[in-house]
Records
---
Amino acid sequence: MSSSLPEEQAAESQVHAAPPKGRLARTFSALGYRDYRLLWFGAFTSTTGTFMQTLAQGWLVYTLTGSAFLLGVDGFLATGPMLLFSLFGGVVADRMERRRIMLLSQYCQMTFAFILAILIWTHHVKIWHVFVLSFLTGSAQSFSGPAYISLLPLLVKREDVPNAVAMNSMQFNLARVIGPAIGGIVFAAFGAAFCFGLNGLSFVAVILALSTIRMPPVLGGDRKTSVLDEMKEGFAFVRSKPSLLLLTFLAFAGTFLGMPLFTMLPVVAKEIFGLGPRGLSMLQADYGVGSVIGALFVASTAYSVNKGKLALILQLAFACSLFGFGFSHNLVASLIIAFIAGACIVGVVSMYSSLVQLTTSDAMRGRVMSIFMLAFRGGMPLGNLLAGFVAQRWSIQIALMVNGCVLAVVALIFIIRGTDLDRALAPA
C-alpha cells in the first residue's frame, strides 16, 4: 500500500482558506490556498508558452509538408506517448515525490523546446526533427501528467476539489487564448524560432512554483509489490467501480471524436478560409475564449449536484457544435461555433475529471488518474490520426461532421437511459 498518510496530513495542515460564501468567492475558491495559487500561476505561464509553440509548430508542419495527414501524425506523436507511458507514470506518482517527477519533466520539455528553436533559427529543421521532439515532449508529459493531476487534491480541501479541477481547466484554456494570440504576433514579426524559444523560457515559471510549494514527498521506499502488480491493482480498483469505467469511456469518446477540431485548425484556416498564421491564432484564441467561459461556469457550479447530468448535456452540445463547425463555410459562423465548442468541451472534461478525483483515495489517485488520462489523453492521438487520414482522403469537413454525429449518438444513449454519473461522488 502507498505510504501517503504523511502527505495527506501535511496537505491538511497547509489548508487555511475559509469556506467560500458568495458566488464569486465560490468560483475562485481554490485560489485561496497559497500552494495551489503558486502552482496555478506557474502552470498558466508555462502553458501559455506551450500554446505559442503549438501554433508555430502546427503551421511549421503544414508548411513543410502540405499534408493534413502528417499534421495528424505530429499530433499523434505529441500525445501518443500517453498510450505507452501514462500507466507507468501513475505508478511512479504513487511511489515517488510528485514534485520531483514534475520538475524533471519540465526541465526535459524546456530542453526540447530550445533544441527546436535552434534548429529553426539555423535553418536546419527537418520534419523528422519535429516528429522526434514531439514524441520526446509527449513522453515527458506522460510521466508528469498523473503526478500533476493527483497533486491538486492535496493542495485544497475535499469540498474544493471540483473547483480546483475547474480552475485548472481555466488556466489551461486562458493560456489557450493568450498563447496563440501572442504566438501569432511573434510568429509574424520574428518567425517560428522565437515562439519555440519563448516557450522554453516559460518553463522557468512552473519550475519556480514547484520549488516553492510546501509539499512533502510520497514515501514509497517500503513498498513490497512490483510496478506491474501496482498497475494491476489500479485496474482492479477502476473495474470495481462501474461509474469510473463509464466516466473513463465518456472521456475517451469526447477526446477521440472531438479534439481533432483543434488539431486540424491549421487545415481549416488555410484550406477553407485562406488564412495565415494570424488568422489561425484568431481561430485558436476564439476556441480558447469559449473554453475559459466554460471553465468559469463549471467553477461556479462546482458545489452543485447533478454535475454528471450536466456533463452529458454539454457533451451533446459539443457534438452538435462539432458537426456545425465541419458544415460551416462562413468565418463568422465558424468563430461562433468554435466558441461554443470550446465552452462545452472544457465543461465536460472538468466535470468528468472532478467526479473521478472525488471517488479516489490518495493512495490510488496516481494510478486511477493515469488510467483516466490514458483514455482522455490517449483518445487524442488516435482521433487525430484518423481525422488526418479522413481529411487527406476526403475533406476536413467530412471528418468533423462524422465525428460530431457519432459523439451525439453516444451522449444521447446515456441521456435517454437516465445514466446517473453522480454516483461517482460516493467516497472511495
---
Amino acid sequence: MKKGLSTILQPIVDVIIPVEHAFISERNLIPGSYSIVDAATQDALLAATSGNRLISSGGSASNSIACANLIGVPCTYAGLVGDDEYGRMYHADFEAVGVSSPNARVKSARTGVCVSLITPDGERTMLTNLGVATELTHSHIDANTIEASQWLLLEGHLLTAGEKNVSALRKGIEVANAHNTKVALNINSEFAATTQREQVLANFLPKIDLIIANEPEAIALSNKSTPQTAFSELASRCPSVIVTCGKNGALIQHEGKQLHVPAYTQNITVVDSTGAGDTFTGVLLGGLALGYPIERAAQGAARLAACVVSQSGARLPASAAQIWLEAVAV
C-alpha cells in the first residue's frame, strides 16, 4: 500500500523581523498587508533593518509536508530554490529530516523569500519575492515520486504565478491520475480563488480528489455567501472537500461522509495563528496516508493545529508527534 505524500510547491524562506510602527508608516506600507515585490525592494528592506531575525523554511505546502513528515509519512516535493544562502538552508532543513526533492538548486538564481515585518502589536506586514520558484515547469515534475505516493498535494499559489507553474500542476495531475495517486488542491489564497475561479472549476476540480479552502477562499471559489453554502457547492463538484473555519473547526466531506470537526481549544492560548491551516492540511493528509479513517485523521489534525496557534512560528517540535498519537488514539 502506498503511504507517501508528494507536493508541488513554491519554496519560500521566511525572514521575520521585529520593527516599530514608524518603520511601516515611513515606507508607506499598509499594516497587515501581503504583497509581491521585486528583488530590489526586498533587498532595500533587508538592508534597512537590523537586530534579531528569525529565518526559517516556509511556504504553505512546505509547512504541510513538514507536519506530515513529523507524524511518520514519507514526503517529497517539487519546487525550485537558488544555489544561494537561503536555498542551501531550505534544502538542508528538509534533508535533515529525510524529505527529498528531485530538483537541484538552480545556479545563479534567487530563492523565494518572504520578509515579515512584525510590529509590537503582533501584526505582520509581508513582502514576498518569489525568485526562481516561478520557473518551475512541467519538465521539473518527477513521475516516480508521484507514482510512489498515496497523495499529491498541489499548492494553490502556483495558480497565480504564471503559465510555467500552472503547467507543473497539470503535469502532476496527469501523472497522479495515471498511477492511482490521489490529488489534493489547497487553494491557499483568496486572490487565487477569485482570479482563477473559472480555471479551477473547469480544469482542476474534475481531475482531483480533494479541494481544501478556508472560509473566504471557499466563498470566493463557490460564489456563495456563507461557509456552509460554499461547502455544499464544492461538495457537489468534488468527491472530497475540506473547508477550514478557524476557531469554528472544519467542514469535511470524504468517502461519502460529511462531518464537522471542532477546533481543539482545551487549555490552548492563541499566540500566533500563522500556519494553522497548513498544519491541519498536512496532518490530515498524513493521517489518511497512514490508513486512519477520516474522523481520526481530522481529530489528529485539529489537535496539532491547536499546537501551532499556541506558539510562535509554523513549524512544530518533534515532541508534537506524541501529542498526535494520543489524539488519533481516542
